[in-house]
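The material for today's practical consists of a large collection of protein records. Backbone structure tokens are a discrete shorthand for how the chain folds in space. An example says more than a description, so a record of this kind follows:
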Amino acid sequence: MSVRYELIDAEKAATTPDGARKYSVVKMCEWLEVSTSGYYEWRDRPQSGTAARRDYLRMLVRQIFAESDETYGYRRIHAQLARWGEHCTPELVRSIMRDLGLVPCQPQPWRHSLTEASGEPTPIPDLLKREVTAAEPGSKMGVALLGGGHRCADLGFCVGLDRVGGSFSLGS
């Protein structure tokens, strides 16, 4: 029933362009099949304890969310409320955040990309600046970088890397 009464209460404020009320309360009650006296009784009823507690929690959730620079989600806000001595369930905090339209800004992990914004592959940077090529087999132990994207070790096998597709192949 309260959903119907809330609809009547919301529509009661609607006006026409000349400032007159669009619908009367009596007509809306008739259309929604509720009594006029029931609507006025609902409207004049004092706020329930549950509604008062939700309003108080709304204020706290909004405050915590603002203090966290809009980064805390419902779990962290719930933990902060628990530290403050306000006991409630995480689902209640989640529901309040949804009602208030609070969506945390979660930073995405940074990932190194080998392609520029244009989609073209770029060379892999040599951050170690080491010379790993050998003039002849057995003179250096390590990995040698050959043209064409092949890395060969002196262990008797070669790994071919395809830089665009990210695949590799083993050969001897």
In short: The chain has a mean pLDDT of 79. The two ends are 79 Å apart (CA to CA). The longest strand covers residues 143-146. Strands lie at 143-146, 150-153, 158-161, 168-171.
